[in-house]
Structures are given as structure tokens and as C-alpha cells.
What we know:
The protein starts with a helix and ends with a helix. Helix 1 packs antiparallel against helix 6, helix 2 packs across helix 5 (77-101) and helix 7 packs parallel to helix 9. It has helices at 3-12, 19-35, 41-51, 53-59, 77-101, 117-182, 200-217, 222-228, 236-247, 259-281, 290-300. The chain is built from eleven helices and no strands. 6% of the residues are buried. It is an all-alpha fold. Among the domains are: 3-118, no CATH class; 206-247, no CATH class; 259-301.
Amino acid sequence: NIQWLDSSYQQTCLPDSPWQKILDDLEPALANKVRQQFNNLERRQILIELLGKLFQWKLFRSEPDTPHILLPPVMPEEHRRKLENEAKSWLQIQTHKSALEIGAAVTEDEDINHLSNDMKNFLEYTYQIVRKSLERYLYQVQQKENLKQEEQKQQEINKKKHQDELTGGTKLRSILRDTKTNSKKLPIIDELQYTPFPMTSQYSDIVSSSVVAILKRDPRRIVFITEKLFGQQLPISLRQFIWTECLLRFEKKPFDYDLSFVELQTRREFAAGVTRGKTELKLTNPSNTPVTNLIENAVIE
Length: 301
């Protein structure tokens, strides 16, 4: 959804990117671990399908491809879903282990000394791409904002000019009359200086939206973000996402991290709690409770 971020990601995956060198080491390491699961025919087939046709063609070309064993009536749909979920979880763990073995995984302590030279080159390459892409995008936003401000300024000038044309004759006669009678000079009308509004807030919102997009792909990085921004004022979108992750602990994946649904669900739960309390206390008005009366009496006293 964020074009400059998607473009940066695609650029890091180009054939001339340092990522290709890492991939050349990572794929064989992962393939060796996957082969150890080939004694089970069903597990072998689901792993091959999850890894994709290109991976299969490069590293498992000699392995038989039997997709029918995972389809009804040979295998029930529910059993296939369970097998697929287990295989995905296993692949994720083994991919991380393989990356650690070749020095291509950034650990939680962010120690880069254990990283391979290829991985260090890739991180620097990625940093430069993201930085330049973001600067280019922010410049484009600034240019659009400047153009918009210039158009608004020109509209105000044209509007003022049009008003002067409609009332200019009367004002001119009045000024000449005052000049003749009072011997005063004509007033000098200076054009108002226009000061552009700072765009700090807009820039922070753009960066915040990009950070949220990354966190949606890997919510585990939220700990890193909160540590880096501790004590800082957060933009609305990032603050909303962090509150959603940290305070509203319920399953959001089926809704693709739809924050509007999170808010709706929270409001429903709050309304249900108020309704339940109102019924238990037999209140006609939720705001008129024994606690309210106690507070009012304490304030009066």
C-alpha cells in the first residue's frame, strides 16, 4: 500500500542485489534440513509445495511430485490444513536456523559481529536504498505542498484584485478627498509576506505510516521500536498501532490488522460491560451510580 516502501523492497531483490549472494547460501542450507523430512511422503509433498516451484526446480528436481496425495478423497481438507500449518511453522523455524548458520540473521541483541560480510553488505545496501527512497518521496510531498500553497496564494491575490476592481473607485475618491483636505500622503500598501506552514507533522505521519506497514509484517519488531522511541511523542498512527498491540490482546489476524475493527470490538465489549453493570445494580441511568453520589458528597464536604 505504500509505494515508496514497496519499491525499495523490490529493488533489494533484484538480480544484482547483495541479497542474491545470501540466497545462494541460504537455500542449500534449508534444503538439507528439508530433506530430512522426506521419509514421510505427505510431509515431503507439503514442504515442496510451500517452498514453491522455483525452489523445487533448483534443489529438488529429482524428487517425485505427487500433489494428488494431499487432495480429497485421499486426504480430507481439514487434515491438509493441519498438515500445512505445521509445515509452515516448521519451515519458519528452520529458515531462521539456517540463516543463523550462514551468518545472515540479525539477533535480538543486534550484535552484527557474527554476521557474514555478505549480510553486512546487504544491510548497508538496504539502508541506502530505503534512505534515498524516503528522501525522494518526502521531497515529492514537499513539492506538492509548495505548489498547493502557491496556488492558494495566487487565488487570494486574484480575489483581492477582483475586490479592488469592484470598490476601487470609491476608495480612490475618498483617499483623494482626504489628501486634499488634510494634506496627507497616500498610504503605502505593502503586500503581506507569506510564511509557509512547517511540515514537520506531515513528515512524521508519513514515516509513521511506513513504520506501521513494516510492523504489520513483523509485529515482533514492535519491541525494538518502543525502545528506540522511548520518551518521544509518537504520531497518531504509530501510537494507535502500539496501543492496539500492547493493550488489546485478542486475535486480529483474521481481520488483517483492521484497526477499525479493533475499535469496534472494544466499544462493544465496553458497552456490554456497562449494560451488565447497569442491570446488576438496577440503575435507570448508567451515570447515576452509588460511586457518583459518593464522589459528589465528598466534593461538597
